[in-house]
Amino acid sequence: MTLPTKRFRKLNEDFTCEHCGREVPAASGGTPRNHCPFCLWCKHVDVNPGDRANPCKGSLRPIGVVSDARKTYVIMHECQRCGERTRARAILDDDVAADDIDLIRELSAKPIENERAGAPKKKKRR
Length: 126
Fold this sequence. Notes:
By secondary structure, the chain is mainly beta. Helices cover 6% and strands 21% of the residues.
């Protein structure tokens, strides 16, 4: 019998934002950073968090913010290449670079669109 492999890999590293061009430091807290704290955009690189196995590599545009059960903000993203939607927990208590709370508030005031015109539909996973 083989043991199942871990689906999540905690990967927290510096990167340069491909949307705004700013240098993004790794998060200082327990939540790994996967989006830019300055513009909230990210890159479609993971199938499972931290695995860097997604071949899409498109830009993920922040489209809205929702609250989760733990009373934290969750940023909703939509891939500009394949149309898939993803979620990322906001990082508000980071000592190095916390997410821009004004952008989060602005996004939370907008309704999240159901469909993006012309975007491919998200494929259902089995």
